[in-house]
Amino acid sequence: MNLKKLSLLAVVLFCTQFVNAQEGLPIYTDYLTDNYYLIHPSMAGAATCAKLRVTGRQQWFGQEDAPQLATVSVNSRIGETQSGIGAIVYSDKNGYHSQNGIYLTYAHHLMFSRNEIDLNQLSFGLSIGMIQYKLDETAFLNEPFDPIIAGIEQSSTNFNMDFGFSYNLYNFYAHATVKNVLNNKGINNDIHVTSNLRRYLLSAGYGFGKFGSDWSYEPSILFQYKDGTKEASFDINLKAYKKMEFGKLWGGLSYRRSLDGAEYIDGTSINSQKLQYISPILGLDYNNFMVAYTYAYQANSVVFNNAGFHQITLGLNFNCRKEKYHCNCPAVN
After folding, report:
1. pLDDT tens for residues 22-57?
2. What is the C-alpha to C-alpha distance for residues 273 and 298, in angstroms, rounded to an integer?
3. Would you call 84 exposed, middle or buried from its count of C-beta atoms within 10 A (0-12, 13-18, 19+)?
4. Measuring CA to CA, which residue among 91, 23, 32 is closest to residue 58?
5. DSSP symbol at 208
6. Rounded to whole angstroms, what are the CA distances from 292 to 45, 163, 315?
7. E strand or H helix at 236, and its extent?
8. pLDDT the model gives residue 216
9. Least C-beta-crowded within 10 Å: which of 95, 98, 257, 275?
């Protein structure tokens, strides 16, 4: 293996906590672009409108085989019932690894309020997914012989499931989800870490806004814990919304920090750093259409590339019900 590929492999191994290979659908800041269903199955059909969302994310522009992610999600209430359905299709590539997956979701929503003006809703959701993992080793065919490299494109298909619940009370919301509930052998089935991809998510937020004002604000948090690697991180987010004649203009800022660090050598000393992302978001709602842009900057001393992470989200709301909740609850309204 030549020096260039050896160096790339070392960087990828060092940055394992910064990217999400073979862990099911990666969790970035996609959910902040009016897309909580992407990470919480209980949000399928929770809103007054059916939602279609398409996202594309590209990391480290200018670098060959840089991580990239594409997702398509749709969710809707089933007629006038208290049930909702959804589907997610995604493609995630990271160097020589890639995965393609599809999830189907069923959710049920219990209304505790007397009418749909006052929001008081408890939701449960279950997603069943099929994920195909691939490891492309064909690029190493011309390298010196290595018994652990087969020189082929290995693949493995597995099933998994996500389960969670959501609670929306007026302007307040909370979500709890367990992702990848089942053990998943992936490709490296001899390594315990890759078989246990279970991830726990907890998130909460609140919408503020004066009565009659065109402005509203939404602080929120997200905590996630990976059971297999014992890694934890949290997001602190703040979004602002401005009502316009054509719809709504909104933006925000997200800060992600890992609670686990990685050590590196700086000259003659050994230092450590923890993953930090700073992500500004800008979005526009025009009638039933939505478009958003997210840029993520990795604020660490040692990074693979300073080019950043770019994400575009396109959305469409359809089959909207006439009744609207009297609350600052953009994920539901």
Report:
1. 567 889 999 999 999 999 999 999 999 999 999 999
2. 12
3. buried
4. 91
5. B
6. 21, 28, 9
7. strand 231-243
8. 96
9. 257
Q: What whole-number distance in Å separates Cα of residue 125 and Cα of residue 41? A: 5
- Burial of residue 230 (CB within 10 Å: 0-12, 13-18, 19+) is exposed
Beta carbons within 10 angstroms of residue 300's beta carbon: 17
In degrees and rounded to multiples of 5, residue 322 shows phi and psi of: -70, -40
State which amino acid sits at residue 59: Q
Over residues 151-202, the pLDDT tens digits come to 667 778 889 999 999 999 999 999 999 999 988 765 555 455 567 889 999 9
Which CATH architecture group holds 3-318?
Beta Barrel (2.40)
- Look up the pTM and report it: 0.86
Q: Residue 81: is its pLDDT beyond 50?
A: yes
What count of other Cβ atoms lies within 10 Å of the Cβ of residue 145?
Answer: 6
Better pLDDT: 262 or 210: 210
Record the tokens describing residue 58, joined without a space.
Answer: 């590209």
Tokens of 274: 């923890």
> Residue 52's CB: how many other CB atoms inside 10 A?
17
